[in-house]
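Re: the request from the purification team.
They wanted to know what the chain is likely to look like in 3D before they choose a buffer screen. I agreed to run a prediction and write the result into the notebook, where they can find it.
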Amino acid sequence: MAGRAIRGGGWAAQAWGMAVIEVRDLSKRYGGVQVVDGVSFSVEEGEIFGILGPNGAGKTTTVECAEGLRRPDSGSIRVLGLDPVKDRRELSHRVGVQLQESLLPENIKVWEALDLYASFYRAPKDWRALLDEWGLADKRDARFSKLSGGQKQRLFIALALVGDPKVAFLDELTTGLDPAARRVTWELIKRVRAAGVTVVLVSHFMDEVEELCDRVAVFDRGRIVAMDTPSGLISAVDADQQLRFRPLAPVDDATLARVPGVVSVTRTGDRVIVTGRGDFAGAVTSALARDHIPVAELRVERHTLDDAFVALTGRNLDTQES
């Protein structure tokens, strides 16, 4: 599901199906600080849409406006055709929310939390089935304070889904989890989408967004600086990449240098390092095969979303201010 890259915050239609979320020219200030500045995007039915950026970039404020938790200063928002401010009560029955700062009373039991949340909705799911679905059946009577980080996240997902929503907002779902628990949570998010729920995933983890999202809006200083598929953002990075290998037969550097897209050919010990752009790596490997030159330890150092973020903003995500 490819999307066209969008630079800046201006409104642009997407080549997708029906939009379930439409945000146009959204702005929000706190005091004299412009936190969200003319943000526009749409989220299509059935996708996992990522909102990526550092702390303080306006991600959570944007999502809270879409959820009806904050009133925007200007702009328009429609979620499932509803205005989050005017139609907040109705919208609350159709969306599920996992907030960035989610806490429950320490002594509340898992089943009690699910039963309580189910009472908020007019047509909730059977919370007993959710216990089984999210691997919490054996923790039914466990108190919240006794759950592990991963178990708490499973519970928060179940709470976000107990109202049988069409859209789920998941904000910084894996913050504080160890790598193994994060990857388990990723699989849970995929299951949420597989169940027919459109997911808006707010994150500052590049690997998470790259793994899960169909499209992603990159936020920086209250604006959307780019929007595309993760692979589209990465491929748009106009920078050199490297192909490294150890040749098992003599190879002529000058021949490799003439391959389209190759910028330079250097050597480090018995390793050849070919620097290039575009699809140069495929062209180089084809040239090696054509000349019957076997290689070992072939490795392509590809761009990542980190590289894309640096190219778009001129800064590293992990060094941003809070």
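For the purification team: The domain at 241-300 is CATH 3.30.70.100 (Alpha-Beta Plaits).
Please add any questions underneath this entry.
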